[in-house]
Write a structure and sequence with these properties.
Glutaredoxin, Glutathione_S-Trfase_N, 5-stranded mixed sheet, 5 strands, Thioredoxin-like_sf, 10 helices, binds glutathione, 248 residues, alpha+beta
Length: 248
């Protein structure tokens, strides 16, 4: 049931029934709602929801008139997607949402056990992606990379060092960031690498990056998200027309 404020929306409500697959966690799709746009970081969260193999509802909303509406500001005062509403509680920030889902659905093993040595890598690469890599890619694309003293103060530092850190992460990936366990850290790190290399070319591709991404982009949960996004992309105006200013 939509509230009065919600009724002003033309957004598309789509229920994803992962329960058609086997071994699905039993979740009422109406209690797990992702607000997204197919040209956004919401695609990463959708991929993660598919990895969790749960039923959920996706509300596709347009940038500006819908993301900046009073209703959506009541969900995320930044007026940004993605946002997840689960059992009436709100989680925003792509990496926070993916981490929350990994923790909420433990049987999907998308987070290392609490006594696993890989918990170090898990948190390291999750937070590197959220706080450092995200900012670095956007700064590179908008020619606003910090230099001098500002580089020392900003979480980005120097862009060349960011590239070295990515190589460090990938050289120790066996084949995933947490050894042979595919986790939410791979969902977010791989999403940002795909965005930085294939979509915007902020970072040059390499065999190291390609070898890491190759098995990941063949995962059914990723392919399911991509076919959904390809189906709906043309119905939504991208945030910016410039190919270098996309944010998906
Ligand atoms: N730090 C946020 C960033 C979210 C974000 O910037 N979303 C973009 C789309 S990818 C957005 O909604 N932009 C529209 C706007 O700010 O008006 C996250 O990681 O989720």
């Amino acid at each position: 049931m939509k509230t009065n404020n919600e009724k002003k929306f033309n957004y598309q409500t789509i229920v994803i029934k992962n329960s058609q697959n086997l071994n699905v966690e039993s979740v009422d799709a109406s209690s797990l709602i992702l607000y997204s746009n197919p040209h956004s970081r919401g695609n990463t969260v959708q991929w993660m929801l598919n990895e969790c193999a749960v039923d959920y509802t996706i509300q596709l909303i347009q940038f500006n008139n819908e993301t900046k509406s009073d209703f959506f500001h009541s969900i995320n005062p930044l007026g940004k997607v993605p946002a997840l509403v689960h059992r009436g509680k709100i989680v925003t920030e792509t990496v926070a949402i993916c981490s929350y889902l990994a923790e909420y659905f433990p049987t999907k093993m998308l987070k290392p056990e609490s006594n696993s040595p890989y918990l170090t890598d898990y948190y390291r690469w999750l937070f590197f992606t959220a706080g450092t890599l995200d900012s670095a890619i956007i700064a590179k694309l908008t020619n606003t990379l910090p230099s001098g003293l500002v580089a020392g103060m900003s979480s980005i530092g120097h862009f060349e060092d960011i590239q070295t850190v990515i190589k460090t992460a990938l050289k120790s990936a066996k084949p995933y960031l947490c050894g042979d366990q595919f986790t939410g850290a791979d969902v977010v790190f791989a999403s940002y690498l795909l965005f930085a290399t294939n979509v915007t070319h902020a970072i040059e591709s390499s065999s190291l990056i390609d070898n890491y991404l190759h098995p990941i982009i063949q995962r059914p949960a990723y392919l399911q998200m991509m076919s959904f996004v390809n189906l709906h992309r043309s119905e939504f105006t991208p945030y910016a027309q410039s190919p270098s200013l996309q944010c998906e």
